[in-house]
Write a structure and sequence with these properties.
The protein is α/β, with parallel strands linked by helices. 38% of the residues lie in helices and 21% in strands. Helix 3 (65-72) links the parallel strand 3 (51-57) and strand 4. The relative contact order is 0.22.
């Protein structure tokens, strides 16, 4: 069975909620998904996964420092060929800023990964949240699409 790691950092709990919903979508579509907080994620413990999804709150237009450090370490040979994609939580005017910057960083730092786009941006109502209505459904659908990529080897 294909396996996905959903790695996240979350300050107010919004990105954690989104990560859990993405993982639920992956499981519904017939793949395995594990939630991993960024401080528990290392290239070595991610090596057993077919896909790595990385999520962060939008922190001044980019990912949190912990997520950036993780992405910098993803170029290790043990992760070569893994599917990777990104998601963020943000205010409406900031959509995809952090996710796209994570993708760009991964393409530079870990060229051996199979970076898959498009990324996902989930909107919050204010700096601390809560999530806007309907956004968790987007996250679940994203998880289902990722499971589809895993099954087809995209």
């Amino acid at each position: 069975m294909p396996r996905a790691a959903v790695v996240y950092d979350s300050k107010w709990g919004n990105t954690q909620q989104v990560a859990a919903e993405i993982a639920a979508g992956i499981r519904e579509a017939g793949a395995q998904a594990d939630l991993i907080q960024v401080r528990q994620a290392t290239p070595e413990n991610l090596a057993g996964y077919d896909a790595i999804l990385i999520g962060s709150p939008n922190h001044f237009g980019t990912a949190t420092a912990g997520i950036r450090r993780l992405i910098n370490r993803l170029g290790r040979p043990v992760l070569a060929g893994r599917l990777v994609t990104f998601f963020d939580t943000c205010l409406p005017r900031e959509e995809l800023k952090a996710a796209r910057r994570m993708e760009q960083r991964a393409r530079r730092k870990a060229p051996g990964l199979a970076v898959v786009a498009p990324e996902l941006s989930v909107q919050v109502r204010g700096m601390k949240g809560p999530l806007r209505e309907g956004e968790l459904e987007k996250a679940r659908g994203f998880g289902q699409r990722v499971a589809g990529w895993l099954k087809t080897g995209r």
